[in-house]
Amino acid sequence: MVKQFDRGIPLKVIAYEDRHKIVTALTENYGLVSAMAKNSVQSKRFGSALGLFVASKMGFTQTENGEWGHLSEAEVQKTFSGISGDFEKLSYGSFLNEIFLKIAQPGVPAPELFKLYVNALHELDQAKTPEIVLAVVCIVLTKILGWSGHKPNFKTCMACDQSIQGILGAKVTLDFNRVCWVCPECSDPIGLTGSPLFVFEMDFASAQPIKNSLVIIKSDLESLKSGFHFLLRSLCYHLPGLDVNQLQSLRFIQ
Ligand SMILES: [Zn+2]
Question: What mean pLDDT comes out for the span 55-77?
């Protein structure tokens, strides 16, 4: 097996016997990589490189399906230490790890997912308010929906085509099945109630880098929370294998 080198961030790390770790990392060019890091517990060689929310240059071998290679070296490039030190950021960071573990595939390069994940960690690390923490997560979910071929239709009412900007004072119905909204006049019995401002902000964010979108966020925490649950429900509805009941980190997210 040839050794590969790539940038990677561990999404899950489990202990194996006393001295080893099995690391599942999202890499820039090799998709999801699961590899054994031998003698990595309390190892000077690896240092903090096998921690969550740490980006490293990794050297690993891989089997054809991307499973069970060996991780022989890792050198820290960037530590997002603001995430581990804050309960709320840690909860949402762990949530993102669970989502990326489900959507990234072994042996399938997805550099755009890696970029989205790195940018998300950077913004979570820097976030100053609970609103921004939640907005980062909502923007990531919106972008994942687009990436997976279920781009939200947020510009206009699904039924009558009126623009979201025309009804910013009202409430809209969010439809997770079609990932869209309908205005009060066209109301949809199967939807959730949502804020037009949130819809407008996520529509803007879907076509922008996360950083550029955060400056326009004015939604309050309640609108962001209901929007978060709508986006999560949309994602679970459309992506096979993603089950809201299996997401452990949701227990820490109210
Ligand atoms: Zn309408």
Answer: 86
